[in-house]
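Severity: low
Component: inverse-folding endpoint
Summary: output formatting inconsistent between runs
Steps to reproduce: submit the following structure tokens with default settings.
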């Protein structure tokens, strides 16, 4: 009986911890010092180039010795232009390269 109770408490604590961690990550991104793009960025991927316009708000995600990574949020009603994509390995991200002209 004691083992069952301990297991239930442990599972509840893990669920609470996971939930709080998700909320903290969302809070950290949204409440961090966001940045406004002052000059347009050229965006480049393996499939082509695009442009990020002046005034776009960037949210800091991670910072490294030579590259910073940001998040942007996109609103669209054109869901028919999107299709599901799966990576071979889980937790894979493919950032776009951004630079000034």
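Observed output (run 2 of 3):
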């Amino acid at each position: 009986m004691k083992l069952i109770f301990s297991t239930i408490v442990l599972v509840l604590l893990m669920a609470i911890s996971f939930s709080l961690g998700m909320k903290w990550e969302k809070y950290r991104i949204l409440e961090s010092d966001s940045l406004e793009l002052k000059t347009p960025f050229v965006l480049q991927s393996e499939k082509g180039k695009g442009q990020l316009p002046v005034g776009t708000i960037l949210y800091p995600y991670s910072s490294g010795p030579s590259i910073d990574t940001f998040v942007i949020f996109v609103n669209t009603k054109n869901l028919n232009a999107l299709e599901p994509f799966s990576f071979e390995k889980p937790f894979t991200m493919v950032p776009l390269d951004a630079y000034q002209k």
